[in-house]
Amino acid sequence: MNKAQVIEFYSRLAADNPHPETELLSVNTYTLLVAVVLSAQATDAGVNKATRRLFQQVTTPEQMVALGEEGLKEHIKTIGLFNSKAKNVIALSEALIAEHGGAVPADRDALEKLPGVGRKTANVVMNVAFGAETFAVDTHLFRVCNRTGLAKGKTPLAVELKLDKATPQPFRLHAHHWLILHGRYTCKARTPECWRCSVADLCAFKQKTPAPTKRVKEV
């Protein structure tokens, strides 16, 4: 896409959803961090179901450590990889207490040093909690950027760096939310719903999916 097309692309997504937000439920920055860690290879809906009761009881690293790994497992056992995730959440909670006074640091490098926190998770927290113009590349965003031609890359980092370079103001703050939601609900992996896509004419994907045909009921 050229610069004018990129601006038009984002303008349409923004018009459809002026104030996009993460679909993960949280009550503060710490619970947001925990929710994002738990969301790896899991759906937001599945994480929300597991954390709804958890976040009524636990809202600080100290409370999480007191709950303990086995107690946490009971809350999140419906989430994939819950054993390793529970271990990481307890470990990152201990690290926050020991190294940051129990607060979540507003620094991507510091976040990435926490157990279970990779670049994508750090980018989400920086964006949602601290208003940083970061681009969290999950499977949806990776697919949308490559399929549309917005920011092609063979790795999540390559896509992130290209997206950072290609995305102008005033779209930078909400860009990754627009793209993730677009991939989740419209530009789906197996069958993209091109017939109802607001940016289809700007998209480089050649095999556009036609609208499903309605069956005519026999009289």
Short description:
The protein has 219 residues and is mainly alpha-helical.
Q: In which range does the helix fraction lie?
A: 55-70%
**How would you spell out the order of helices and strands?**
HHHHHHHHHH
Number of DSSP-assigned strands: 0
Rg estimate, integer Å: 19 Å
The portion of residues forming beta strands comes to under 5%
Number of helices: 10
Q: Please state the overall shape, judged from the principal axes of the Cα atoms.
A: globular
The helix-and-strand class reads: mainly alpha
Q: Could you give a short account of the major beta sheet?
A: none
Give the terminus-to-terminus CA distance: 49 Å
Ranges where pLDDT stays below 50 over 5 or more residues in a row are: none
**What is the residue-averaged pLDDT?**
95
Structure write-up:
The mean pLDDT is 95. The chain has helices at residues 3-16, 29-38, 44-57, 61-76, 82-100, 108-112, 119-130, 139-148, 156-166, 175-185. It is an all-alpha fold. Helix 2 (29-38) runs antiparallel to helix 7 (119-130), helix 3 crosses helix 4 (61-76) and helix 8 (139-148) packs across helix 10 (175-185).
